[in-house]
Amino acid sequence: xxxxxxxxxxxxxxxxxxxxxxxxxxxxxxxxxxxxxxxxxxxxxxxxxxxxxxxxxxxxxxxxxxxxxxxxxxxxxxxxxxxxxxxxxxxxxxxxxxxxxxxxxxxxxxxxxxxxxxxxxxxxxxxxxxxxxxxxxxxxxxxxxxxxxxxxxxxxxxxxxxxxxxxxxxxxxxxxxxxxxxxxxxxxxxxxxxxxxxxxxxxxxxxxxxxxxxxxxxxxxxxxxxxxxxxxxxxxxxxxxxxxxxxxxxxxxxxxxxxxxxxxxxxxxxxxxxxxxxxxxxx
Length: 283
Prior knowledge:
The protein starts with 5 loop residues before the first helix and ends in an 11-residue tail after the last helix. The protein is α+β, with helices and mostly antiparallel strands and 283 residues long. Helix 1 packs antiparallel against helix 3 (158-174). A hairpin with a 4-residue loop joins strand 14 and strand 15. The chain has 3 domains: 1-24 and 158-209, no CATH class; 25-156, Galactose-binding domain-like (Jelly Rolls, Sandwich), CATH 2.60.120; 216-272, no CATH class. It has helices spanning 6-22, 45-48, 158-174, 181-197, 200-207, 261-272, and strands spanning 27-30, 33-37, 53-55, 61-62, 68-76, 85-91, 95-100, 103-108, 114-118, 126-134, 146-147, 150-156, 215-225, 230-240, 245-254. The strands form 4 sheets. It has a 6-stranded antiparallel β-sheet, with no helix packed on it. A 4-stranded antiparallel β-sheet has the order 1-12-6-9, with no helix packed on it. The chain is built from 6 helices and 15 strands.
């Protein structure tokens, strides 16, 4: 596939991926109440229940490095979300752990800021949760500050999630530098078409491609020495992606054997008898 402006297309695909990702949570509401403890060390959930807390605010920063804080949150699921999954959207720029009813249910960090609160909401119910915040990154010290940027309840859309991940997986594959150029071009072209038409069937069709379904035609020449005539053979070589190789003759061009037939026959006899090429008789 020929893409006239591949860099522009890649940027367009990246913007589309951002839009699809945003659609995973089409609605969100702030929590009703959020409180935080003072600085503490690594303590158990049971010990954290006796900590004094104060109101927490978005934009508040926490530290120093390795310190721990415990948050207690409460929210109300909107009536319109009946039957939907409800997630917590959390962003503190650090490691954290979601606790539900005394159980650690999921880790939170800058790469994964969502966690399930209610699998199937009745609508209108109250939910409570706790978050253990650690003032460090995934691998210890981090460059950015630990700052509470987001704490919301959000309605999860499974169809939007599926569409985003189907698209994003193919997009990342298309920009892989080791991908076959022909296949990468087709991916870019079809993903660009998806951006125009928004038809999920386009992505489904791309996922139906399997190893060995694409082939390249390679033309080559080979010179064969015949005991009576020399000829040039043109052949086609079909190489599949699964590395199976098939060779089929296409055409034989006879015309090189009218010259030096005697020398070729003599040379073949010497090779068959173990003689070296340099052992030629002087004429």
